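2 proteins. here.
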Amino acid sequence: MFEIAEPHPLSLNADPDILNDMDSDLHGVKRFYPADSLKSPRFTGPYTFARLPHSRELEVLDAVFVGVPFDGGVVFRPGARFGPSAVRQASLLLRLYNPYLKVKPFDVLNVADYGDVVVAPSSIEGTYQRISDEFNKILREDVSPIVCGGDHSITLPILREVSVKYGKIHVIHIDAHLDMVDSHFSQKYTHGTVFRRALEEDLIETEGSVHIGIRGSLFSERELSEALDLGFKVFTMTNVEEKGLEAICREIKAALSGKNTYLSLDIDACDPSCAPGTGTPEIGGFTPREILKLIHGLSGLNIVACDLVEVSPPYDHGEITAFLAANLIFEMLSLVALRSCAKK
């Protein structure tokens, strides 16, 4: 079993002295806090992530939920442009306390729903520029972005801005696919080429970086060995079965302890039986319980930004993919909150 730390005092606060250090109004009520679902029904008001206020006041925020509704990089099933709106709606059921990581992230951090990047649906280059412009502003204010795509192609311009802020970044990439193809249909920028382009642009520190959850058929027998040759750790789902998640998480944490890390999670890492709403499903993936265990096992790492991508609502059933994604983003936010606790 994972060792779970005792609650950090900042994560459970009701102390007025602690509240004074937060962004609050004249009555000591935290400005950036989810609407109280014990007082107003979840189906009322505008849909924002976890019923947070919508704000772009970056100077008073610690973290933001950002939607990037773009799927112009897909090579099979589209629809991920509707991912952020579906995840926001599914997030209405989220509450305040994370009992697994023992943290109340909205008490530790000032968090708001930043809204969506205004993408250019017909232009991947135009969208990349808009993403870069927006994330440059966010990161310049020392705000941690929690991103919801959109397809996986959106990760590249975010990594560009993260590397401007932090230098070459370590990456934990949870996915069914490596996303290191050189091109699709002679196109260099797709959701399957993102980490090859990031390497070519010298954005990633490969030593310690990891792909986890890889499975399914490949384009060639060299695909896995090429990633290893470039310096990545690769854990296929067979490795996960053989080694166990606890051992893998210990290995990842030993390699990345104290290092600036970007977490990128493609929802197709999960089995299509529990996450059918995605563009490139692969059988044999993580169950919701397993993916939660994996995320919890990363607690204590210095995660500076993260994304969850490839939720495609047109292929979802009963909104189960969106509900899973919303909860995984809450877990990611909790990791960022724990990082903030460790620095105080």
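next one coming up
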Amino acid sequence: MYWYYKYPLLLLVAVLTAWVAHWGWSRMPRVEAAAVRPSAAERLRTARLAARKTPSPTVAEARVRAPGPAAVPAVDAAAAELERKLKLAEENAAAGKLIMARGLAEDLLRAPGVKPFGPQWFRAADVVGRVNTALAATTAPAPEKVRCVVQAGDTLNALARKYQVTVEAIVRANSLDTANPAIHPGMVLSVLPAKWSVEVLKGRFVLLVRNGDRLFKYYRVGIGRENRTPAGGFKVSTRLREPEWSPPGRPPVPYGRPENILGTRWLGLQPAEGTDPTLKGFGIHGTWQPETVGTAASEGCVRMKNEDVNELFDLIPTGTRATIKDE
């Protein structure tokens, strides 16, 4: 072959070889990428698996926007329940369902959420006192009351001592003639046996009356100025209607005189064992100045509104234990 044919042909072959090699080299990445690219079926399967694991944005947004009803705090629920029971007790008392009302109110006095001497406590105690006063002053039945059949030789004083009550309590409960109360054999009397005690809390200006360990009623009271009301244990030693006042170093002041500070009733207190025996001349009495109840304004005695001391007087007999505390 002549050289002028041979060399051009070799040059053409070399160019073609180089072009084929370049073309093959440039195509290799695309082929590999196509080889590892997942098929359409595989991509669909992967998308379904991801959808199962991750909630769609629409669902997530719905959960944020509509979280469902908020939980009611336990404290609010308990307060609402206490209020419901208080109203129920008050409604039963107003409707004359006395025993049911008292049971509800007594439960509330012991309820964990009711603070002693707080607003709810006083509302419940008001119901208890109102019911107990009605039961004690009438023949209305109550589990703690007894039916006493008068026997030959019985007297009101003897029956009062037997049941640890006052003659006034028996007279009032059975609607006897207060001016001339008379009983006769065979008569049936309604009596409320009692184990009375009185507790005065000076810091709260409150007097509590209990029958055994149950609250019977509370009363607002006044106490001595400059802490003159002594703390300690006492017993009711005297009971006087329309008392005369005997101020130290001055002549006695008859009942009804404006300067007589004792009001309508006097319950004298005598120191009990463990209390300074020189603490004499103190007592529980009424007042002609009801606006001073709830304050420290007396000479040292416990002072009550006249209508309240009249009621207390008819309840507690001589010998009733009385405790005065600083709290």
